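User: Can you model how heme C sits in this protein?
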Amino acid sequence: MKLYLYTYRRFVGSFLLLIAAALVATWGFAALPSQVQNGKKPGTKPNGDKPNNGKQAKPVVSRDPVVINGASMIQEGRQIFRFDTYGDEAFWGDTLHLHQAIEGTQFGGIGPGLSPSNALAVGLKVDVDALPAKVVSQLKRGKVNLGDPAVTLTLIKADAVLGVKGTFNPDGSLKSIGLTCAVCHSTVNDSLAPGIGSRLDGWANRDLNSGAIIAFAPNVKPLTDLLSIVHPGITDEQVRAVLLSWGPGKFDAELLFDGKAFRPDGGPAATLLPNAFGLAGHNLHTWTGGWGTVTYWNALVAVLELHGVGTFFDERMDDTNKFPIAAAARFGHVSVPPDSDLVTSKLPALHYYQLSLPAPKPKAGTDFDAAAAARGDALFSGKANCNSCHHEPLWTEPGWNDHTPAEIGIDSFQAERSPDGKYRTMNLAALFVRERGLFMFPQNKGRFYHDGRFQTLLDVVKSYDTRFGLGLSDQEELDLVEYLKSL
Ligand code: HEC
Ligand code: HEC
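Assistant: Here's the modeled complex, given as structure tokens:
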């Protein structure tokens, strides 16, 4: 097996180089003026049409320095979003030793290791386009041993496990492991098998059991130490129980700020992972808007959630009542010297890329019923008054887009975990993906609102009908649902 792995790894290495070369070639080509690509001189239309009568040629996008800047920021941002760990190996690998649990005793680590089938079961996704054709065909023929952690290492080495970056020792064992934004905010289109397909950046991974993955780490003491600031005497086992309570598609971004592990009703305090597409034009972000903008949150996540090496500033975290852990640990004042900062320089391109991610578009007939959606459209901005908050076509308010819990008629638990105690008017783009359960395990479909309290869109609409006394008929509720699926 070892020998096979070694040759295979070399193969993967050269394959990746080839891909890189191909990417450079394709991009270089795409960046050429379209006229050159078509083998024609500027001033002629592509596709052999007649010349445009001497009129000024359309501006050549690739010569516009602003467009060139935009394109290169997007490319750079994509690399960061997919592959950059911001040096967080120091936490996930060197401190929590997650890599040792992944490789298992077979490679000098701990325990049985993480087999590909278990990796897929906890919602990790595999990028088929990063795999050599030979492996793809072996996978298709069921010839890959999905029970062998060595195969997981091979996949990680090929950068094929979304959001998981390994660094390797010469003997093929893992030296460390890091996580990237892609682990939670992207998935695959299942083109080869469930969990194996082409990347879909920005799509929330609704299957990812991030709590189970963190609990899999041999050492959770750093988390226990932080939580003991508000829960003196808490044990590693209790911390693991909290992590395991989250379930698929959820993460608790505020746990290590306020130490609140459970809602008043006893359910996990974790929230659903939101999509990271369709966000351009939105002012406030995250479920509880008051944290800030996309780039605010990117910096916070890279430094405080992923534990990358960077600088983060937010005095609001000094509030000892609201954020007792963050205040004690001075999370609002994390600072590293500029030369060792692996986050700050990446914020511009990362921001740019995220804002460039379009929301997927539903198709009439397949994803929604067009006639019913048209009736729902009239209700949305009429009788049902949804448009007063989810303003078309942003689906949130242009401006200060958050509301008190009372204004939307729900409990205040999660809102109060944020600086301003409110809920942000959530984006409604691409709701059809969740309603239909596209590219996710069937049991994880649906689930709306920050904690997934509503299973289906009809449940959401019925609840609004009750909360706001809208007086919708059964047919009107169904029409509104079809409209929501068309956004
Ligand atoms: C472990 C899972 C996880 C990882 C990794 C992760 N996020 Fe998130 N992300 C979340 C969760 C959960 C939220 C919602 C937090 C909340 O509302 O309290 C979120 C929210 C966001 C939002 C706001 C989305 C919206 O609807 O406005 C953005 C933007 C975002 N993350 C970007 C990033 C970036 C950039 C990275 C990498 C630096 C990253 N995330 C890494 C889980 C994750
Ligand atoms: C007062 C402002 C307001 C009005 C009016 C309003 N919403 Fe919302 N909507 C919100 C907020 C805030 C959230 C986020 C709730 C949360 O964080 O759990 C939300 C969330 C949603 C979601 C879930 C999004 C997701 O990603 O899970 C849907 C669907 C939705 N609203 C549909 C509607 C419909 C349909 C109407 C009209 C019947 C409506 N909303 C009226 C503020 C509003």
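A couple of observations from the model: The pocket of heme C (ligand 2) is lined by residues 287, 384-386, 388-390, 403, 407-408, 423-426, 428, 431, 448-450, 457, 460-461, 464, 480, 484 (CB under 6 Å). The radius of gyration is 24 Å.
User: Helpful, thanks.
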